[in-house]
Amino acid sequence: MNGLSDVRLTLTGSELEGGNGRRLAAAPARSAMTHRWLCFIRRLTTRRALLKLSHAQLQDIGLSREQARREATLPFWKL
Fold first, then answer.
1. Rounded to whole angstroms, how far apart are CA atoms 30 and 78?
2. Model confidence over 10-36: pLDDT tens digits?
3. Phi, psi of 17 (to 5 degrees)
4. From CA 35, how far away is CA 41, in angstroms rounded?
5. How many CA atoms lie within 13 A of 61 on its CB side?
6. Each residue of 34-72: b (16+ CB within 10 Å) or e?
7. Residue 19 has what pLDDT?
8. Is the separation of the CB atoms in 40 and 77 below 8 Å?
9. If you average pLDDT over every residue of the chain, what do you get?
10. For residues 68 and 16, what is the distance between their CA atoms, to the nearest angstrom?
11. Which of 43, 46, 61, 76 has a 20 to 30 Å separation from 36 between CA atoms?
């Protein structure tokens, strides 16, 4: 191994150790990751749907066309 790999292994090993010597989980649970991706997908689809709303529908939800466009063009990972 080169020096950089040794440093990564040392850091990863020390990050996994808790202050009391117990090992911590290395990654979030699969269900948490699935939930996060489902939230991203829902946010992406609802933002795209904003672009398809009519003027009357936008008035019903209290948004202008510009506000809807600004929200719809945000990346899915931004709140």
1. 22
2. 545 555 555 555 555 555 578 888 998
3. -85, 130
4. 10
5. 12
6. eeeeeeeeebeeebeebeebeeeeeeeeebeeeebeeeb
7. 53
8. yes
9. 77
10. 43
11. 61
